[in-house]
Amino acid sequence: MIDLTRAARQLALLLPFVLIAPNSAAQTAAAPADAVLAADLPPPSALQTGTETPWIYRGSDVPQDKEWLFGEMDNGLRYAVRNNRVPPGQVSIRIRIDAGSLYEEDAERGFAHLLEHLTFRESKYLGQAAAIPTWQRLGATFGSDTNAETSPTHTVYKLDLPNATPAALAESFKLLSGMIREPVLSAENLNAEVPIVLAEKRERGGAALRVAEETRKVLFAGQRLADRLPIGTDETLRGATAEAVEAFHERWYRPENTVIVVAGDVDATQLASLVERWFADWDVAGEATAAPNFGDPLPPSGAVPANPVGEVGVMVEPDLPRTMTYSIMRPWRPVDDTIEYNEGLLIDYLSQAIINRRLESKARAGGSYLYAQVQQDDVSRSADATFVSFAPLTDDWQAALADVRGVIADAVSAPPTQEEIDREMAEQEVAYASSVEQRSVMAGSQLADSIVGAVDIREAVAAPETVLQVFNGMRDQFTPANVLEHTRALFTGDVIRATYVTPAVGEADEAALRAALLAPVTADASARLEAKTISFDELPPIGEPGTVVAEGSLGLLGIERVQFANGVNAILWSNDAEPGRVALKVRFGAGYRAFGPDDAPYITLGETALISSGLGELGQEELDRISTGRKMGFDFTIGEGVFTFGAQTRSADLADQLYLFAAKLGMPRWDANPVIRAKAGARLTYESYATSPGGVLGRDLDYLLRNQEPRFKTPDPAAIEAATPEGFREVWEPILQQGPVEVLIFGEFDRDATVAALSRTFGALAPREPIAPAVAAKVSSFPEPTATPVVLRHRGDANQAAAAVAWPSGGGDANLRESRQLEILTDLFNNRLVDKMRERAGASYAPQVSSRWPVDVDSGGAITAVAQLRPEDVPVFFAAADAIARDLVENPATADELERVTEPLKQLISRASTGNTFWMFQVEGASQRPSRLQQVRSLLTDYTQTTPEAMQELARRYFGGRAGYRVAVIPEGQELVTSSAASTAAMTGR
């Protein structure tokens, strides 16, 4: 039916010529190989065609999404396949097993997730630890293109295969069939994988995991979900045997429990043939085991409807901010996924949106909580629950609870106004309409995931047109009376349960929490939003419209540059590659260079409060109201050398989106409440950093790698408390007036109308203040390495630590081509570090090596390796990183190593090049740095073509001249271990 637009496919084909890289994967992948597949495979026999109802639509009157083909084989395995050409050449495969942690017996806790790991370890067609390298050679990136997940209700294996040639696709199905059907569940593999799973569990541990575990125990008391986290327990994981894991596999890995979903750039019937080729003969002896009963949320013995409060829990975590959650619980039951049922869901969604907007309005006005939200959720087929979550600002949690309950009490006692309903309907409509507009460019991976999600909750799947049609067909049902009825149902249930997390001992106990939930509550109508219409037509002009003084092609694709008399430059590319989408970015000013040494608190506050402090006549509430029913955004980021506004919008809203951005620069507003609220949020966030080694690294590492420049320091609570709204304005007001402005607009829009809108907005701004030479010249320095690591301490679990080692690199666009080659070297380093730390030692679950090379400034880059591990393994990490760096300097990489890096990079670029944001990123800043355009032409070559000798020379340049700067984060009360036999083994590779 709907095909990828011509422009998007042309981009994929055009990339090699633009980047001077002939015979790229994008060219070969874009030519479908259905004929080759068809020659090798018989036609599928299990497709449900004609009048037969596809398995996912049984019991449903939801119109079928005809772009999907469904099949059900004799062995019970079900599948869904679809032709999709986004991105070109890719095929996304999902294999869902209907078995997660809720299917485990007590002695098997963690087995579903452990089996996921073992499935990748070794299988019928793959040797030990061969899965990841095999798919890397086929162009798939580990962790994003090749992955898996285990939830309470399922295990899903995921492969996004780029450059899906007939051979690569057939090989992938073969390998996946061997993994799912015949993993090698030996004692040897178990001994290798259990330490990795324990490392993953350790890295997820700490205060946050303790809270999650206790919250589950309280909210799902009496149910399997209460004590079955997918990660399992140390006892059951260490006690796992090959025989026990094999029994779990035989019990649940059966064709009747399996759904395979495939979406990609191959004819759907050929994809169905591949599924049947590799899975039709799958047969498991014996009868299928019925899924266990997950249980219902039942009130405690003796509870009565007038007193529905059941289990409650109070958790004291000194380094976590205050949070409270209470839930109204109902039993979950399977439903017939009918249109009537979905109409009810849409009203439920609108009801929640109204309450959430009221709760947010009260918080903005200076309420007793930082945030609050209500959300209905069908949790793991265990409960139909309405959750109420909020964060008290102070230790007076009773006042915050009373305020939140008051808003909800008003919602269940009196109907909303029609104006409130219309506002939320407008928001829903634009979301559904946008989905229809953008249907043709929805990635196959997203489409495959949508089927998996529908299967998990036992519901059907609907095309975007169907959702919009259902919504438009039920408009007369969105009445105040209907919304009130649904609201009351959402807050009615068999039992109420609650948890409260506090940093203070003695602040609350279970009796006080239960009493507060049972206390009478007064309905609070003060947060109801007044009926008030705001129109862009009523807003003042930004200034006299500007004139265009120069325009012309950039010489790349159809991208052009338009310059206005006030110095503003616009880079435009009108194309139909992504129907219904317009990507917009505004770059201005000097970024981090603009700040002084005492400005760190205002940098942090600006990231959250600058936009919400308003513009012109519009405060945050008015900004929300004026964008109702529009696809608009207002992202803000602070870069090394530039500030950025960003949004995804559509052609109909582009002119008004431009007004919002320009008005923030031309007539900013300085409301105090957003700053006060941002201060409260920053204080609460800071308190949680010390709970884990990862949090401490997030707080301090960037500051340390900038040689402790004050601008990059995370402000502590005292610094945040000293900040004021007046000081906020004093810092930010001149910053908004400084530096050149570049506006980038890429997507489906009318070129002439957009230039006219730019003239009225950015072209109408007053001339900008220049960036002072001292500011422009400001650079960051890299610290000198010390004889011993810099030691930081956390207050989390005693078995948790983290380590980082970094080397300086560079910045700017003069050496941009070298920075791309550095990405290859970084990925080589990363693969080796994963092999040493995870696969061999089991010391760290997910070590990572990354390269930062800022383009807008000429320095400040770094290559950084980071890992979370046990305290005793910190020297292992440092020894391994040093050994890898040294070996990269002394010995050339192998051809196979390079292929495992360059092929995924090639495929990543080829896929990304079909989207507008890819090209926007490549040319941004070109109005000030024209040399960037020349660098675009070598992009694919720079990232994907190299030699072992070139990598060795690069390693000598960045690793050979100096030792890395090392940081260790260990628990309070412990001393850093500086050497061990394990570190010697890591250095020697044994």
TrEMBL record:
Superkingdom classification of source: Bacteria
GO molecular function, one term: metal ion binding
Domain Peptidase M16 C-terminal residue range list: 241-425, 728-901
Signal peptide region: 1-25
GO term, biological process aspect, one: proteolysis
Family matches, as InterPro entries: Metalloenz_LuxS/M16 (IPR011249), Pept_M16_N (IPR011765), Peptidase_M16 (IPR050626), Peptidase_M16_C (IPR007863)
Pfam families: Peptidase_M16, Peptidase_M16_C
Keyword Transmembrane: no
Domain Peptidase M16 N-terminal, chain residue ranges per copy: 89-201
Record keywords, A-Z: Hydrolase, Metalloprotease, Protease, Signal, Zinc
Family: Belongs to the peptidase M16 family.
Name this protein carries in UniProt: Insulinase family protein
The organism's taxonomic lineage, starting at the top: Bacteria, Pseudomonadati, Pseudomonadota, Alphaproteobacteria, Sphingomonadales
